[in-house]
C-alpha cells in the first residue's frame, strides 16, 4: 500500500511530532503533581532522559507512546505497525524498542527504579493513580 501523502507533506507532518510535553506525558505530570509528588523533567544526565525524575527516591517514570515505542500488549489498539513504507518504519521502531531496553538496564545498573506508563494505560485507567503511588512510595 502506497503512502497517501507526498513525501514533502509526510515530512511536514512528522516534523510536528514532539518528544516532550505530549498529552499522555502532561496527563501523568498533572496526576503526579496532584498527588503531592515533586519531580524534575527530562534530566539530561540520566540514560534515556526520563520524563519524570524523583531524585531523592532514585525513581523515574517514562511515559511512552504505544506506536513509537512498540507497546508489546496485544490488546493495545494504538501500537499498530504501519502498512506502508515498512522498510523504513520497522527498523526505526525496533531501534526505539532496543534503546528503551538499554536505557532501563542502564538506569537500573545505576540504582534507579523505573516505571513505564503506556499511552493506552492513561485512558480511563482507574488503577493508574494506585500504580504511581505504589511505585513512588514502595521500596
List keywords for this structure.
139 residues, alpha+beta, 42% helix, globular
Can you walk me through this structure?
- With 139 residues, the protein is of the alpha+beta class.
- The protein has helices at 7-15, 23-34, 86-109, 119-122, 128-137; strands at residues 40-41, 52-54, 59-64, 113-118.
- The chain has a four-stranded mixed sheet, with helices on both faces.
- The longest helix has 24 residues, at 86-109.
- It is globular, with a radius of gyration of 16 Å.
- The mean pLDDT is 88.
Question: Care to give the gist of this entry?
Answer:
Helices cover 42% and strands 12% of the residues.
The percent range for strand residues is 5-15%
Bulk shape: globular
The number of helical elements comes to 5
Distance between the termini: 49 Å
> How is the biggest beta sheet arranged?
4 strands, mixed
Helix content: 40-55%
The parts where pLDDT drops under 50 for at least 5 residues are: none
Mean pLDDT: 88
Order of helices and strands: HHEEEHEHH
Q: How many strand units?
A: 4
Structural class: alpha+beta
Strand order of the largest sheet: 1-2-3-4
Rg result: 16 Å
What's the helix and strand layout?
Layout: H1 7-15, H2 23-34, E1 40-41, E2 52-54, E3 59-64, H3 86-109, E4 113-118, H4 119-122, H5 128-137
Parallel strand pairs: 3-4
Antiparallel strand pairs: 1-2, 2-3
Amino acid at each position: 500500500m502506497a503512502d497517501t501523502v507526498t513525501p514533502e507533506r509526510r515530512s511536514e507532518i512528522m516534523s510536528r511530532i514532539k518528544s516532550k510535553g505530549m498529552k499522555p506525558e502532561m496527563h501523568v505530570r498533572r496526576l503526579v503533581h496532584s498527588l503531592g509528588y515533586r519531580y524534575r523533567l527530562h534530566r539530561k544526565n540520566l540514560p534515556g532522559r526520563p520524563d519524570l525524575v524523583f531524585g531523592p527516591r532514585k525513581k523515574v517514570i517514562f511515559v511512552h507512546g504505544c506506536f513509537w515505542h512498540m507497546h508489546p500488549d496485544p490488546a493495545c489498539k494504538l501500537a499498530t505497525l504501519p502498512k506502508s513504507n515498512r522498510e523504513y518504519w520497522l527498523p526505526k521502531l525496533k531501534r526505539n524498542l532496543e534503546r528503551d531496553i538499554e536505557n532501563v538496564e542502564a538506569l537500573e545498573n545505576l540504582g534507579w527504579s523505573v516505571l513505564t506508563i503506556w499511552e493506552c494505560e492513561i485512558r480511563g485507567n482507574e488503577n493508574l493513580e494506585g500504580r504511581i503511588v505504589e511505585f513512588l512510595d514502595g521500596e
